[in-house]
Design brief:
Bound molecules: ligand RRO
Number of strands: 16
Radius of gyration: 19 Å
CATH architecture: Alpha-Beta Barrel
CATH class: Alpha Beta
CATH topology: TIM Barrel
CATH superfamily: Aldolase class I
Distance between the termini: 18 Å
Helix content: 25-40%
Strand order of the largest sheet: 3-16-15-12-11-10-9-4
Largest sheet: 8 strands, parallel
Order of helices and strands: EEEHEEEHEEEHEHEHEEEHEHEHH
């Protein structure tokens, strides 16, 4: 078979009018907290820089070991470890501005985590002069100690966040604020997707990222896999890909906003499947933690070769076209 020429393949994407040089980026969570880690992403082939979720105060996180790779996937209970918004702003300032020269080479997506709508508003207010391209509101961290209900599973709490954050951001936009606002969602059941999609439509949410890790337990008979919460934590990697695809597909049917797909990507075919289901871009977590920033180059080259073979020139040639695919 003629394999086509992968040099002419375009894997760039556009989300909410923002251009991404590649549709492949890191997922919030691993290797994206410190300045060094973020610079490594900036200097890699990743299509964007996504930060670890930031909270109002510093959080040291859960006891180690708190991340474990079991081949079919990973389990973590990091516990939202991050330096807090004040230190995070210093780091992002360093990352964003070199001297007085602004680096626009790839979009910056800042993940924010909170338990209350005011947490999000205070952090956006504090970070608003940084020219962040997108804020990804993480309402789905599975590792909150004390088994509190996640905002994403508490429809009243979620609606409070959506209504207050979007009306606050709407006011900011009148004064020149340009950042887009998205939600990082957990794995849902079909009826929950319908309810959440209806709610999202009522507010000015620009994009969604789905899915965050699922909840699970991994047993290693030789050693402790992860220490917190008796070994229970967030599952990522290949084992959750079918759950991610179902969530992406159903949200794509119900919403007109862009979707960033996450969950179980370690090959070009995984990326292809996420995009077929409707994703406009994809994020890599477990595989990025396993091999570092090389994964963005490997996946880019493999995706381009794959698309050339299938005679696709851009990801829009197959995005959301699962129905037509044989
Ligand atoms: O830090 C974590 O434990 C964590 C977070 Br905030 C998240 O959103 N997803 C996850 O699997 N772990």
């Amino acid at each position: 078979m003629n394999q086509g020429n992968s040099n002419t393949i375009d894997i760039s994407t556009e989300i909410c009018g923002i251009k991404f040089p590649s549709c492949i980026m890191n997922a919030s969570g691993v290797r994206c907290t410190t300045l060094e880690e973020l610079i490594a992403i900036k200097n890699s082939k990743a299509g964007a820089i996504v930060t670890k979720s930031i909270t109002k105060e510093l959080i040291i996180g859960n006891p180690e070991p708190r991340y474990y790779d079991f081949g079919l996937g990973s389990i973590n209970s990091t516990g939202l470890a991050n330096p807090g918004v004040v230190k995070a702003k210093e780091i992002l300032y360093e990352l964003r501005y070199k001297g007085n020269c602004i680096d626009y080479s790839k979009p910056l997506i800042v993940s924010l985590a909170g338990m209350h709508f005011m947490d999000f508003i205070l952090m956006i207010e504090f970070l608003k002069d940084l020219e962040v391209d997108m804020f990804e509101l993480n309402v789905s961290c599975p590792n909150i100690i004390g088994n509190k209900r996640l905002l994403a599973y508490d429809l009243l709490g979620l609606e409070n966040v959506l209504s207050s954050v979007t009306s606050y951001v709407h006011e900011l936009c009148k004064k020149g604020f340009k950042a887009k606002i998205g939600l990082k969602l957990p794995p849902y059941q079909p009826y929950e997707i319908e309810e959440v999609a209806k709610m999202i439509k009522r507010y000015r949410i620009d994009f969604i990222t789905t899915i965050n890790s699922g909840f699970g337990l991994v047993i290693d008979k030789q050693k402790t896999a992860i220490k917190p919460n008796k070994g229970r934590g967030g599952l990522g990697g290949s084992c959750i890909k079918p759950i991610a695809l179902a969530n992406i597909q159903q949200f794509h049917e119900l919403l007109d906003i862009p979707i960033i797909g996450v969950g179980g990507i370690s090959t070009e075919e995984d990326i292809f499947e996420h995009i077929l289901c409707g994703a406009s871009a994809v994020q890599i977590g477990t595989y990025f933690q396993r091999y570092g920033t090389y994964v963005f180059e490997w996946l880019e080259n493999d995706l381009k070769r794959f698309m050339a073979m299938k005679r696709y020139k851009s990801i829009n040639d197959f995005r959301g076209k699962l129905k037509n695919y044989e």
